[in-house]
Amino acid sequence: MAGLRLAVLISGQGSNLQALIDATQRAGFGAEIVIVISNQPNAYGLGRARKAGLSTKLIEHRAFASRDAFDDAIDGALRDARVDLVCLAGFMRVLGDAFVERWRDRLINIHPSLLPAFKGLDVHARVLAAGARISGCTVHYVRPEVDAGPIIVQAAVPVLPDDTVDALQARVHRVEHVIYPLAVELIAKGRVRIEGDLVRLSGVTTEDARLISPARPS
Ligand code: GRF
Fold it and tell me: How far is the CA of 14 from the centre of ligand 1 (A)?
């Protein structure tokens, strides 16, 4: 289907990529994935992309002398594919400031916490260590500061008394797979406006609001 031309950048499992693939196959979604880029040759998500018949590209950071050269290779692949919106989905390389500025407001990320809390790595272990009662995930526009940028959609999940990192991660993942496609759909439908550091959503219905803040994970 036509619409907004998406690139999805991955390094690993690609379960969010899968959620986006499934969403783009729904009629009226308003976006299509035109390229999947991985910096890891053995990323499981590359297989998901190939199975869905998507075009894939491996751009290994190790093959480049500098971060700028790596970023330029990614930029070139995105331009060649005439990408409108870049979705980072478990992409484990930090992109340089120049790249982020070049793709400003066309580059989004999903992070497994309720930002601005718990930026960075090992989020679920730190959430448990902090004794937080609620966690969740965030889809946001990317800015040069890591895990910062205008928030598009968030979803909350409870942290349960006997949670392990794996259990909490699985619960957060389930809602990631709901909100990443939702954020892309909102952008594709022109319902997302960036005002300074904030996103304003237009036409959000009660049903959307339930998805944005699920009462309970199923
Ligand atoms: C997700 O938890 C996402 O929030 C984080 O990296 C993980 C990627 O998981 N940025 P997957 O590769 O999409 O399964």
Answer: 7
